[in-house]
Amino acid sequence: MKNLSPLLLILGIALSGCSDDPANIEAPYAGDIQNPYTGKVSVALTSGQSSSDRIKLRNIFPNKETRIIAIVQLENATPGMKVTGEWARLGTLQPNAPGQTPEGILIGKADFTLMEDSINPETSIGSGKLQLTSTDTLPPDSYLLRVFIDGTLVRTSGFVLIPRPKQKAVNTPPAVNY
């Protein structure tokens, strides 16, 4: 019974703080937490290199690229929204690459904050640019851009870098018109 007394005392103290009174129930935090973004997010990828005035959008790049640009558009945009991009190498072709994880190898990060002048006042569509720049060519592999708005993942965009052909095919048969 001596060993049971301290246990009952602790239990009594703990239960004395409990009550069915709603005033005693802890309310959820109602501070300045923003609701997660739920609008449409569009991502277009390019290397930014073009021989004409048009930008060529694509998701397959030769691995000679040292720069990949993501053009991001957000519906219902408001000034101050922070857009972050995390660029990851997925290791599809080289699964044993140093630092490889199930989420990939983080190879770059970029962000921008939407300003009033980057939002169309008629459509409320905001846009900006995320850029991955490397000092060397990126290895052939699958890659993924994760786009976050104010810390919440809202979009992913996959792309691949393919090896450059060593030479053009010789004796390619001519195109046949039917």
Question: What features would you describe in this structure?
Answer:
The protein is mainly beta and 178 residues long. It has a single domain (36-162), classed as Immunoglobulin-like (Sandwich), CATH 2.60.40.2550. The protein has one helix and eight strands. The chain has one helix spanning 4-16; strands spanning 41-46, 60-62, 67-74, 82-89, 105-113, 126-133, 141-149, 152-162. The chain starts with a helix and ends in a 16-residue tail after the last strand.
Beta content = 25-35%
The major beta sheet can be summarized as: 5 strands, mixed
Terminal-residue CA separation: 99 Å
Overall tally of domains = 1
Q: CATH topology, anyone?
A: Immunoglobulin-like
Q: Which range best describes the helical content: under 10%, 10-25%, 25-40%, 40-55%, 55-70% or over 70%?
A: under 10%
Overall SS class:
mainly beta
CATH second-level architecture: Sandwich
Tell me how many strands there are.
Answer: 8
Total of DSSP H or I helical runs spanning 4+ residues = 1
- Could you tell me the radius of gyration in angstroms? 27 Å
Give the low-pLDDT segments: 1-33, 167-178
Query: In which order are the strands of the major sheet placed?
Result: 2-8-7-4-5
Overall shape: globular
CATH top-level class: Mainly Beta
Mean pLDDT: 75
- Order of secondary-structure elements: HEEEEEEEE
